[in-house]
Write a structure and sequence with these properties.
- The complex is a heterodimer.
- Chain A is mainly α.
- Chain A contains seven helices and no strands.
- In chain A, α2 packs parallel to α6 and α6 runs antiparallel to α7.
- Chain B is built from 19 helices and two strands.
- Chain B is mainly α.
- Classes of the chains: A mainly alpha, B mainly alpha.
- At the A-B interface, α5, α6 and α7 of A face α5, α6, α8 and α9 of B.
Chain lengths: 221, 494
């Protein structure tokens, strides 16, 4: 008889699945507002996983990481994105390079590839919960797709932040007791990325008078 | 004592210069930037001397360290810092009429922080810290690329930020995987410095190291400009202000290559050299092939030089894939030579662009006539980049080819020679036309823009010639030691 999964393993599996579903939902979100909301929820799920790991592995330092993660990813970043968007109700259907059904089909293919490729590696981590890492890598690949398939800077920015969440989940399940330096790296990455992305989005909007990237095609070849 | 002061100088002085650039007046910020560049370069020379003299490695606390491998890259990055800061004096002065005080302030702050981050990437102790430093370079350089505030600069900056950040996301995953592999091999709670992970490299689980290495090459390869993830590079290099283009090409690509080499060290020890060779060979050949094709069809001078960078990064990757000691020594010499040659070429291209107010090669004529010094040195730098003697790139490429033949990599070596020759024709044909053809009637007056813009070019081409004719004994000893750190003979496991 096999032992029931631990609280950590269950939480990791559920969180990675939620992150995957969120990025899928971002692909078919009709408005910027919906994408920001989905990102907020995705980040909340990642923060919850950090708290579970802190509790089950008795790593008090991770509570601080969870608090900062909540403050930045759930509150500050979505708020900044909302302020940057000239209209949160902007229709995203025109910024999609493919129809929703085709995008979801591609996303399904990418996620299947990520899931089975990682599974085939048989990574020897004793603490590695079930399929969490494979699902996290699958959502990472869909985040890549999201960047490619959306042609507006806000969606591309949100896709990048979603990729960060996927990397966070993968890291948390692979190396539960991250050294402090790695935790700092994560937070640093998020903060500087927000600053740089925010600045560049503003510059782009000021020059192009639009958030679309369709017109930035001068530099080719 | 000297080692500590040198490491501390590299870590602190550029930040002081950045601070002064923020609060002080025009003159002070220029003096501070040039001084910081030279102090950093002199510190790197001091580190090189100590390591060449037999020191195994140098430390400052647990966070900063220098060994022969890091010293080579630190030397390249700090040389670029000093050369670029000197060139920038002339560049900014020449632009003064058209640029605001705000531009100058942002330019000097950004330049100093960018160089600081690149220098730090070469002397920090641990893969996680290398990642943090390279992430800082991305953020700062993306903002610097956008500094000219043109449509092209904004577009290039956005593409660069997006593509490089996603690449660094993969590199972060690679870092975490290496840490997790370490936790499996030597238990939780170990320091993520280079020493513990290298000491335990043979005990690490091969599957995780294999995945980490591929992710690292893909992630840092994005910043290094390896095809097919190089697409940001020609845009950013061509649209950035010229001093930033020189730094991006000569130093940033090398620093990203340094990060890959640190993974190479671990992976080659764990897996044996075959897997790492295969991965690098595939990326290297693709980069070289693509660059040699694009070099023949460029119309933008700075974009041409950018594709030349893709070519040289491909050569470095192929050289590492040969994994012979002489090829690896050649690769490390090529890092130094490329830093000198590419910065000199970009400086020349920038001066020509400022003189003619265009970088479209179909309309540029009379480069040597209009800029007797810069034009001539640009031509020499392009010939050096094309691998002609007596310059150092000829020597380094010769060593790489020699290594390829020594390891029986006949097909790869032949491909390298053919593609480098194709790139030579593309690069030299385009540039010789704009430099040697007579100037048009409505061309501006003959004469250099500024002595500050010529001096770093003279030094750069001089160093290229010196390194090509005779590499100083201390430096060649350092290169051999660094190559020995990277050379992993032994069983081939796939």
């Amino acid at each position: 008889m096999t032992a029931p999964p631990s609280a950590f393993a269950s939480a990791a599996d559920v969180t990675s699945l939620l992150v995957l579903l969120c990025v899928m939902a971002m692909l078919r979100a009709p408005f910027v507002r919906s994408q920001v909301r989905i990102y907020r929820f995705q980040s909340l799920a990642v923060t919850a996983l950090v708290i579970v790991i802190a509790s089950t592995h008795h790593l008090d330092g991770l509570y601080a990481l969870a608090a900062i993660s909540f403050a930045t990813k759930v509150v500050v970043v979505p708020e900044i994105m909302a302020r940057l968007a000239p209209s949160l109700d902007a229709d995203l259907s025109s910024s999609a390079r493919l129809k929703t059904a085709s995008m979801l089909l591609l996303a399904g293919g990418a996620s299947a590839f990520g899931f089975f490729a990682i599974g085939a590696l048989h990574l020897p981590v004793r603490t590695l919960p079930g399929p969490a890492l494979s699902i996290a890598v699958a959502s990472l690949l869909i985040s890549f797709l999201l960047v490619i398939l959306r042609s507006d800077v806000l969606s591309q920015g949100i896709a990048f932040f979603s990729l960060e969440n996927s990397v966070s989940v993968a890291s948390l399940v692979v190396a539960t007791a991250l050294p402090v330096i790695m935790e700092i790296a994560f937070l640093f990455d998020l903060l500087v990325a927000v600053v740089a992305f925010g600045l560049l989005m503003r510059v782009h909007h000021r020059r192009a008078k639009t958030l679309s990237t369709e017109q930035i095609t001068r530099l080719r070849g | 004592m000297i080692a500590r002061v040198a490491l501390a100088s590299i870590a602190i002085v550029p930040l002081v210069a950045a601070g002064l650039s923020w609060i002080a007046g025009e003159k002070v910020k220029r003096i501070a930037t040039v001084s910081a560049g030279f102090v950093s370069f002199l510190s790197a020379i001091a580190i090189t001397n100590l390591l060449a003299g037999g020191e195994r490695s140098l430390h400052l606390g647990s966070l900063l360290t220098a060994d022969p491998l890091s010293a080579v890259f630190c030397l390249a990055a700090t040389f670029l810092y000093s050369a670029t800061s000197a060139y920038s004096l002339g560049y900014v002065k020449h632009r003064d009429a058209g640029s605001s005080r705000l531009f100058n302030q942002r330019f000097f702050i950004g330049l100093n922080i960018f160089c600081w981050a690149m220098n730090m990437a070469t002397i920090v102790n641990g893969l996680a810290l290398v990642w943090v430093a390279i992430e800082i370079t991305t953020v700062i350089s993306a903002l610097l690329v956008a500094l000219d505030d043109t449509d092209g600069a904004t577009e290039a900056s956005w593409k660069y930020m997006l593509i490089a950040s996603m690449g660094l996301g993969l590199a972060l995953l690679a870092t975490v995987l290496i840490y997790a592999a370490g936790a499996v091999g030597i238990g939780h709670g170990f320091s993520i410095g280079f020493t513990p992970i290298m000491a335990a490299a043979k005990k690490l689980p091969p599957q995780m190291v294999r995945l980490a290495f591929v992710l690292a090459v893909l992630g840092y390869g994005t910043k290094m400009g390896l095809a097919p993830v190089h697409t940001w590079l020609p845009d950013a290099h061509s649209e950035a202000p010229t001093p930033i283009s020189a730094l991006l090409s000569g130093a940033l690509l090398a620093v990203s290559f340094y990060a890959i080499l640190r993974y190479f060290q671990v992976a080659a020890t764990t897996l044996g050299p075959a897997f790492c060779r295969d991965v690098l060979l595939a990326f290297g050949l693709l980069s070289l092939l693509l660059a040699s094709l694009y070099l023949a069809s460029q119309r933008d001078l700075k974009r041409l030089l950018a594709y030349s960078s893709v070519e040289h990064m491909g050569i470095l990757a192929i050289g590492m894939s040969f994994a012979a000691p002489i090829a690896i020594t050649g690769v490390l010499l090529q890092v130094l030579a490329h830093a000198c040659a590419k910065s000199t070429a970009f400086f020349g291209a920038g001066s020509l662009k400022e003189k003619l107010h265009t970088k479209d090669m179909t309309t540029m004529r009379g480069g040597i006539h209009l800029l007797p010094w810069s034009g001539t040195i640009l031509l020499l730098a392009v010939l050096a980049l094309s691998g002609l003697p007596p310059f150092a790139i000829f020597r380094s490429e010769f060593m790489i080819v020699q290594g390829g033949l020594a390891t029986s990599s006949g097909i790869a070596t032949s491909a390298l020679v053919v593609l480098v020759t194709a790139a030579f024709f593309g690069l030299s044909w385009s540039t010789s036309r704009i430099l040697l053809a007579p100037a048009s009637r409505d061309a501006p007056r003959r004469g250099e823009l500024s002595a500050w813009m010529v001096a770093p070019m003279v030094v750069g081409i001089g160093l290229l010639a010196v390194l090509g004719v005779h590499v100083p004994g201390g430096l060649i000893h350092l290169l051999h030691r660094a190559a020995a750190e990277l050379h992993t003979p032994g069983r081939v496991s796939r």
